[in-house]
């Protein structure tokens, strides 16, 4: 994904996520891609990369990770890259056994915001 595309997608995705009614979250990566009007190929990857950019912004600003509002269609958790980056950014513990609890706590913080 070009950095220019990510620069325009990041604020659009943040706006989309902040305007979701609480009963509509979490949404899937595909739902986010559709709402942004992304066309294949690579729509899910582009959403994931944009979510990673939002995660970096949120950690830098001391905010809860808004990316927690987007999950895989194969369950109710984000993709593995979310957890890897959350650990790398110092937001989640390194132990994968603690990731789901950390995610639930992060999601609750986003929802309370």
Verbal overview:
The protein is mainly α. 59% of the residues lie in helices and 4% in strands. The protein has a two-stranded parallel ribbon. It is globular, with a radius of gyration of 13 Å. The chain starts with a helix and ends with a helix. The relative contact order is 0.14.
Helix coverage percent of residues? 55-70%
- How does the overall form come out from the CA principal axes? globular
Gap from first CA to last CA: 30 Å
Total number of beta strands:
2
Radius of gyration: 13 Å
Would you list the SSEs in sequence order as H and E?
HEHHEHH
Question: How confident is the prediction overall: mean pLDDT?
Answer: 94
Classify the beta-strand content into a percent band: under 5%
- Largest pleated sheet: 2 strands, parallel
Secondary-structure-derived class:
mainly alpha
The unreliable regions are none
Oligomer state equals single chain
Distinctive features:
5 helices; 113 residues; 59% helix
Précis, in short:
The chain is mainly alpha-helical. The protein has helices spanning 3-19, 29-36, 43-61, 80-88, 99-112, and strands at 27-28, 70-71.
Topology, element by element:
Elements: H1 3-19, E1 27-28, H2 29-36, H3 43-61, E2 70-71, H4 80-88, H5 99-112
Parallel strand pairs: 1-2
Helix pairs in contact: 1-3, 2-3, 3-4
């Amino acid at each position: 994904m070009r950095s220019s595309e990510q620069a325009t997608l990041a604020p659009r995705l943040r706006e989309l996520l902040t305007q979701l009614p609480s009963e509509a979250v979490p949404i899937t990566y595909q739902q986010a891609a559709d709402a942004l009007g992304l066309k294949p190929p690579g729509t899910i990857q582009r959403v994931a990369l944009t979510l990673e950019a939002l995660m970096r912004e949120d950690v830098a600003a001391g905010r809860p990770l808004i990316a927690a509002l987007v999950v895989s269609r194969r369950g109710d958790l984000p993709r593995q890259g979310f957890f890897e980056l959350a650990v790398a950014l110092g937001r989640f513990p390194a132990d994968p056994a603690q990731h789901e609890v950390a995610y639930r706590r992060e999601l609750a913080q986003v929802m309370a915001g």
